[in-house]
Design a protein that fits this description.
Chain lengths: 362, 128
């Protein structure tokens, strides 16, 4: 039985097309993927991301424990600072990728909806040191307010200067008298915020934000545009681009692996992988003509299969097909031209960095 | 609720056909455009192609999905709608008029007679 988020009524009222995703009834789109995508790139949009899981780690050893569970270095976080990380199995396969918030009295892990139960079970199984862990996913509502106008909207709702809240920092504060966590984070490449509240304040939060955003023609945004926006930034999606059969080094996530930080789950395997070298690499590529890369299609160099597509879409900003996939390392360099074997095969070129390079992210 | 209009016929694959003399105009139904959402590429067959009823003759790509286009009737492709090739979003806005995709010179009228009536298509959609 699929769950509702605390914003479900708002989606129905806004004529959303609703689908089941990761066990939740979620809006896939309101007006259409392309107009919603453009609203976020040019003005501001609001995503219900309450399906995301929230796991809290409390106790005096919470930082030590979080550091043992994840690949990035949690001890580098100042109070209210955030980092992106992965959590691994001992063989370096990825359990999940998520954000770590270092809050005043707890560490908050904001995890993928489809992985929340699995992550919680994995964390409990590996629990050590003086900590207590709780899965708060069912109690918390979350909205993402994203776009170049996001700060103008949100500034109306907070009595401190939002310029002081930098990228990947959070504030535990109040909005209209109720407690919230506000962070300057997102999954779109635009400037923006993510806002966490007790679910009893969810509808009130939605109304406040839409009232504040009316002058910027603020819009609700569905999962469809969430995917095209993240994709244009070449951000990974767990279940498509990374999973337990891939490790962070081949996924291009080496920058969040701090191998020398001390012991953590998956470290030994990563050391071995580093020594022997990775065989495949997750890269981005764009179609040179017509054609849209779709998941599971094979990729060829002349007659030899050299990789496969993990996710692909039409890019509303670039107006062409873009894809991500794993390629054998010799064929993963930017500039290499390859063929994607669709019903009719088409040419793609491996690119470096994000597909869309004009985001307002600070 | 997807609109289903009278005076044309439909297929199980969600195309529609309008017959005028021996010229059949083909497009995709309102239900199909709404399921695909945000159509971004249309590749119809070339003018002059001989097609057989039920054959895949082209593709329609949306942001998140791709769908085959099937020939509703047998015959020869005599025209394709270059406007929807240039601006595929027309199909989302007006699937039954401006959003037509191709015209086929029909070989035998029985192909048309065998297609779904609006009532039959309505039942098919309701069962989805």
């Amino acid at each position: 039985m699929a769950k509702n988020t605390p914003f479900y009524e708002m989606h129905v009222r806004n004529n959303a097309k609703i689908v089941e995703f990761a066990g939740f009834l979620m809006p896939i789109q309101f007006e259409g993927i392309i107009p919603e995508h453009e609203a976020v790139r040019t003005s501001v949009g609001v995503f219900d991301v309450s399906h995301m899981g929230e796991i809290e780690v409390r106790g005096e050893d919470r930082m030590k424990f979080a550091n043992y569970l994840t690949t990035n270095d949690v001890t580098r976080l100042a109070l209210n600072q955030i980092q992106y990380t992965t959590m691994l199995y001992p063989d370096a396969g990825i359990v999940d990728d998520f954000l770590v918030y270092n809050l005043k009295d707890r560490i908050l892990l904001v995890v993928n909806a489809s992985n929340a139960d699995k992550d919680f079970a994995w964390i409990m199984e590996n629990k050590r040191f003086k900590v207590s862990v709780s899965n708060r996913s069912d109690d918390i509502g979350e909205l993402a307010i994203q776009g170049p106008k996001a700060q103008l909207v949100m500034q109306k709702l907070f009595n401190f200067n939002l310029d002081t809240l930098k990228f990947y920092w959070a504030a535990e504060t109040e909005m209209a008298g109720f407690p919230v966590i506000l962070s300057r984070t997102g999954y779109t490449g635009e400037d923006g915020f993510e806002l966490y509240m007790d679910k009893k304040y969810a509808e009130r939060s939605w109304e406040l934000i839409f009232d504040a955003g009316r002058e910027f023609n603020i819009k609700p945004i569905g999962l469809g545009a969430r995917d095209t926006l993240r994709f244009e930034m070449r951000y990974c999606l767990y279940g498509n681009d990374i999973d337990r059969s891939t490790n962070p080094l081949e996924a291009g996530l080496g920058w969040i692996v701090k191998i020398d930080k001390g012991e953590f789950i998956g470290r030994d395997a990563l050391v071995r992988i580093k020594e022997s070298g990775i065989k495949k690499k997750l890269v981005g590529f764009e179609a040179l003509g017509k054609g849209i890369p779709r998941p599971h299609l094979d990729i060829f160099k002349e007659d030899a299969k050299v990789g496969f597509v993990t996710s692909g879409t039409f890019s509303p900003s670039l107006k062409k097909g873009i894809g991500m996939g794993y390629l054998d390392v010799p064929f993963s360099e930017a500039g290499i031209k390859l063929k994607v074997a669709g019903k009719e095969s088409f040419e793609v070129e491996v690119i470096k960095g994000p597909f869309y390079k004009h985001g307002s992210r600070k | 609720m997807a609109s289903i209009i009278d005076g044309i016929k439909y297929t199980k694959e969600h195309e529609w056909i309008r017959l005028e003399g021996d010229i059949a105009t083909e497009g995709i139904s309102d239900y199909a455009q709404s399921e695909l959402s945000d159509i971004v590429m249309v590749e119809p067959p070339k003018v002059g192609t001989k097609v057989k009823a039920g054959d895949p003759i082209g593709t329609i790509e949306a942001v998140k999905a791709v769908s085959d286009l099937y020939a509703c009737v047998s015959g020869e492709v005599i025209q394709v709608n270059e406007k929807v090739v240039k601006d595929p979003a027309i199909i989302n806005k007006d699937p039954y008029n401006e959003g037509w995709i191709l015209k086929i010179k029909i070989e035998k009228k029985s192909d048309y007679d065998n297609l779904l009536t609006p009532e039959q298509y309505k039942e098919l959609i309701a069962s989805h």
